[in-house]
Amino acid sequence: MPSHTRFTAGALSAASTLILFGSAPTQAAGYKIPEQSLNSTALSAAYVANAHGADASYNNPAAMAFNEGGRALEADLTLIHLTRIQHDGASFDDRSQVENFQMPTLHYVSDDKDGWRYGFSMISPAGLSKRWEGTAAAFAEEFTLQTLELNPTIGFQVNDRFAVGGGL
After folding, report:
1. How far apart are the C-alpha atoms of 43 and 118, rounded to whole Å?
2. Which structural domain, as residue segments, surrounds residue 9?
3. Alpha-carbon distance 105 to 76, whole Å?
4. Are residues 44 and 75 in the same domain?
5. N or C end of the chain, less CB within 10 A?
6. For residue range 17-64, what is the model confidence (pLDDT) as tens digits?
């Protein structure tokens, strides 16, 4: 077998494996709710690297160790509104109902105890619902996904520039 054929087959195999396993989390993220605190809503995914305050307990437990001051608490209520979907097609018509949700979040970080900080977060990392009235109702009249995550965390400041942390 010529060397360029072996290289092509190997590269194709590696690329296929990477696409197959690398895209799996993306496929399952349709009901993900990334807005788990005020700062994570404002800064999106960029917030994880620079988390500070009570919500560091969820976004980056190691960063809790660098929080200035004492303990921190954040409680939020996010209101989610999904508009009605109306589809008028050649083969069928379909429509959904308006959906409204309330999503509470709670984050807590303890005082510094010799470099250690303990945290707790209560969030809803995924969810939402859709109720169909038209043709789609024959397959799924209502789909609802509700999740609740209770996450205890711990962070330790090793030195002025390095900390470790984790949670369940």
Report:
1. 24
2. 1-30
3. 5
4. yes
5. N
6. 766 666 555 555 667 777 777 777 776 666 666 778 898 898 889 999
